[in-house]
Specification:
255 residues; alpha+beta; 3 domains; 4-stranded mixed beta sheet; 4-stranded antiparallel beta sheet; 6 helices; 13 strands; 24% helix; elongated; binds zinc ion
């Protein structure tokens, strides 16, 4: 975590203060237990619980990627908008990574989380009038197949169809995958656009899926081997293809 309270109950934000100037004791703003200051080689300076046992809001130690991305996004938003890090609006009873212009919650998700938890968090934001944007770290990047969790993290807009946000900490890029769909073989197809970290106004970048634009298309690759693939799927009684075959039989179109 990057924020704590000091002995005078003042919030200390490590992204705004030189860690070397910190003296005294620091506490978790939520569970009030004492925190360490960690200033090592790999991760940026951060606070960590001496024990996580009594804390409901911090359940794990944050990775280098998560801390690093929070810092980059905080600084990127700050250039043009009002941003708070790890703020805890009491009515919300949860703590977004970043809160932008009081109403946009940014969640930088770098690890797996249970779908039930994701739904609860999303619904909680929405019922309190917040917009939540989930941005996904490396372990949750979209590959050839889509997982159950990823299905719940996909958004939809008229202009970009189904879309998904990814964060590439190493390459320092924000990635938008859009027009997401499955081809006939079940492989995930999408269009990919990249924005270098720090480029332009971040809130505008995140509105990209809603901007009016020229019609987007994905070039179609002719799959010569598709008839063989379908024959094979029917031979092995793949439920998806059997169902399709049945539909065509009923219409008298199967030959
Ligand atoms: Zn705590």
């Amino acid at each position: 975590m990057l924020t704590a309270i000091d002995e005078n109950k003042k919030i200390v934000n490590l992204l705004e203060i030189d860690v070397k100037k910190l003296t005294g004791k620091y506490f978790c703003p939520f569970c009030k237990s004492e925190l360490f200051i960690k200033n090592g080689e790999i991760k940026i300076p951060h606070f960590a619980h001496k024990s996580l046992k009594s804390c409901d809001l911090w359940t794990e130690n944050e990775s280098e990627q998560h801390l690093g991305l929070k810092k980059i996004f905080y600084q990127w938003f700050k250039k043009t908008d009002r941003v708070e890090i790890e703020r805890y609006p009491p009515e919300l009873n949860q703590r977004p990574d970043l809160l932008v212009n009081d109403k946009i919650a940014i969640e930088i998700q770098c690890s797996h989380l249970p779908i039930k938890r994701l739904k609860e968090r999303t619904e909680n934001y929405q019922s309190h009038g917040y917009v939540v944007i989930w941005l996904m770290g490396k372990d949750l990047w979209l590959k050839d197949q889509i997982t159950k969790l990823q299905r719940h993290l996909v958004y939809f807009s008229e202009n970009r169809g189904f879309y998904y946000w990814e964060l590439d900490f190493k390459a320092q890029k924000l990635r938008l995958k859009s027009l997401i769909h499955k081809d006939l073989r079940g492989k995930i197809i999408y269009l990919q656009e990249e924005i270098s970290f720090g480029q332009g106004r971040l809130i505008e970048c995140l509105r990209l899926p809603f901007l009016s634009q020229k019609l987007l298309t994905i070039p179609l690759i002719v799959d010569d081997k598709l008839p063989d693939f379908i024959r094979q799927q029917l031979y092995y009684c793949s439920p998806k293809w059997l169902k399709l075959q049945e539909k065509y039989y009923q219409r008298g179109e199967n030959c």
